[in-house]
Amino acid sequence: MSGSEAARVALDQDEGISELDDGETTASVRSSILQNREQYGRRYHAYKDGTYHRPNDEAELDRLDIAHALFAIINEDRLHLAPLKPEPGRVLDLGAGTGAWAIEFAEAYPSAVVVGVDISPTMSEFVPPNVQFEIDDVEDQWTYSKQADYIHCRYMVGSISDWPKLMRQCYDNLNPGGWVEFQDFDINYYSQDGSLTEKHAFRRWLVLCMEAAGKVGRTLRVGMHLEQWVRDAGFTNVQVFKVPVPIGPWAKGQRMKRMGLFNWTQIFEGLQAVSLRLFLNVLGWTQPELESLLVEVRKDMKNKEIHSLYDV
């Protein structure tokens, strides 16, 4: 989601998978794809090592499940915003993560055929019969034998090097009349009351993350570009929604408080996971230097006088 100016946030003073993929055009999963490696005390996937900078250990998978719950709050418990038919047909979930969304969608639409794709082998083994997970890089050339009716792509910020190419692949692999839905962050923390400044460690850390991501060909400001990328790929009937998401439970209203709390938690718990490879491998920092910065970042995040947020 991206688009027009976000609203102001008020501060609270108080069957068969073969239908989609017949297996003839998809490479078989090799044992190497399922391997992992240890680095900096965290576990990372070994397939195309380095293309995804976050770990895939249990702590990170727990954080991804929190992020899934966050999107449920943002979307008011809707699994999709696209106006899908009661029987959606063939569905492709890009960047499936733990598989939570794909599983919930498959349960809600038992006639659908759902394929979740991720570069890391982190999906659940216990899935509905109409779900299949594949380990693959969505930036490679797609080889699906049949088109999809709905493509879902969420929270891929920092993971894609060529977004326009990904959009074109979606366009080329979508049936006429089908829908593609992108939901992602514009990770540019700000405050509407001036309480978050460039002097804060939270902002300094983010700017450094942006710098490191840029050096490896990634952007953290995906949300602000989604609409143009989608239109450039040839899609029509483009609908854009923009939601300001608080970081912390400081905003008015029960929904906004829950949104802020879940968002704060997934960011706070993921600080090290996001930072390690970006700072140590890309920026050349030492691990003690990074941990020292993160101590200050955590202090800022716990400061109730800072009312930070960003847009989705």
Automatic annotation (TrEMBL):
CDD domains: AdoMet_MTases. This is Methyltransferase domain-containing protein. It comes from Cladophialophora bantiana (strain ATCC 10958 / CBS 173.52 / CDC B-1940 / NIH 8579) (Xylohypha bantiana). One of its GO terms (molecular function) is methyltransferase activity. PANTHER family: 2-METHOXY-6-POLYPRENYL-1,4-BENZOQUINOL METHYLASE, MITOCHONDRIAL, METHYLTRANSFERASE. Residues 12-24 have a biased composition (Acidic residues). Residues 1-30 are annotated as: Disordered. Pfam families: Methyltransf_23. InterPro entries: SAM-dependent_MTases_sf (IPR029063). It comes from the Eukaryota.
